[in-house]
Structure prediction request, 651 residues.
Amino acid sequence: MTPNSQTGTDTVKVAILGSGNIGSDLMFKLLKQPGHMELALLAGIDPASDGLTRARDLGIATSAEGIKAVLADPDLKIVFDATSAYAHVRHAKALREAGRIAIDLTPAARGPYVVPPANLNAHLDEVNVNLITCGGQATIPLAYAVSRVTPVDYAEMVSTVSSVSAGPGTRQNIDEFTFTTARGLEVIGGAKKGKAIIILNPADPPIMMRNTVYVMPEANDIDEQAIIDSVNRMVADVQEYVPGYRLKNGPLFEQRSTAQGPRTIVSMLLEVTGAGDWLPPYAGNLDIMTASARRVGEVFAQKLLAEATPTEVTA
Amino acid sequence: MKAPRITDTTLRDGSHAMRHQYTLEHAKNIVAALDKAGVPVLEVTHGDGLGGSSIQYGFSLTNEMDIIETAVQTATQAKIAALLLPGIGTRKELQEAVARGIKVVRIATHCTEADVSEQHFGMAKKMGLETVGFLMMSHMRPPEFLVEQAKLMESYGADCVYVVDSAGAMLPHQAADRVKALKDALSVEVGFHAHNNLGLAIGNTLAAVQAGADQVDGTLRGLGAGAGNAATELIAAVLDKMDLNPGVDVFGLMDAAEFVLAPMMPFQPIPDRDSIAIGYAGVYSTFLLHAKRLGAEHHIDPRDILVELGRRQAVAGQEDWILDVTLDMAREKNGA
Prediction:
């Protein structure tokens, strides 16, 4: 652990793997709001990449040696992986063997899914946690907010992102987005069954990221006020680390016909405006991933510091 | 000019007008009549494609896989097709539909987003399916833009690429220009799918055929989203008069429309006020019934909702935006 000259508090050295858009946005977030982390390395695999150049210009140590450079420095305790699912499978194993904590922003999911306000505290003993998908980070908190009040049969999310903010990874693996997000709605969101839909919208100027969450509770007769209160608390919790997270409409309570007869549906319509740290504000889908990753990293950093020294730390 | 192949999609696009309430009995009767009349391809799926049964689009009364299986068992000559919209349905549903007997898959993306379909075409070709690419909302982009997207689908393995007028917003020359541009640029077949919101479904279909379309879509009685589609029985009668009958029984289709489908239809889709607004504003035809329902519930004119959705450039599948627009308008109206 090293003293941070700016804040006077102890910090944990962290590294980012991946010098693309996500890695770069995360870098700007860690510089703007380091908390108990010190970004000590941005590692990519292409020495000529814009991302590495940008990092060097900002005075951040860089390497084009990828995971090798991360493993070479034992002080890098927390590693954010913003590469690809394919690469992370290999990275996960190497980082685990080297005793580093991996925060996985790819869909590889080698460790448990985490959504900070729902279940992060339950996974602080893990050495690898996965951030699901951007749509999952946006919508699972709201499904969870309902299911902690009343049992939920089914939760469905619809994510609409601007075409320009959906990169080739998302486009070539669109099924994986729906599988993983649906699973997250079940595992963390508390729904017996989850469903995810993603839509790309090419409107110009680009639209902000929009998400709609529909929840079908087990019971038709539910305590609406308790759900509204729980959802509002959750929105405030997410806003702590994603300032552009906003419930635009709802919760709306409606009766809809289903094959099993009329059921109560809770609809919640969200908008996520990115912080514009590196990616433009319409890329709320990417912003919520990097903001969640920063939050998870911060909580892990505090835990490591608390283990190293018994003194109390604050965010 | 050559006779185009007709695909009937009463059991897919018609599912919107049926509010996804088809039964196995419905499917059996519709397939039997179309099969007997010689229609070679029948599309059978939830209106929004495989996996479309949802809160967002409406739940199916009957599991679409069971309807597909019933259709496969009923047909003697017709091939059964399924629609898949990447982002809604996945390769998992596609695999099950293949296990239930589909021979054709039609893979639909918004007309600017063809590159999300690569993995689905790849799997479909591997499984030996005939593949069709669907460029939805094609009125939103000019012919030369559509050509680039169609070429992507061709490169992924599409055997045919459709110009899809999902909003029923095209005029005949626009349909013809788009079909012709694709015909000139692709080595695979080209198709056209019409909606009747501006009363031009048959006219646009004919313009497409004259521009060289190899495949066209219809539904009995035009049963489909918005003001419905080009009626299969009308396409057959008109093509027959042009000496372009692809081998279907014109009177048989007229009978199927009148005596099999009409009695089970909840309403006859026509270019009514709100449907014309869809064609005029260029929004997705399936928004019609959702906008009518939400407009009635929240005391907002459905036409205002539809026009605003056009202004926001909503695309296929964004039914949640109808609720969003409605709630925004209701809030504004109540001065809150």
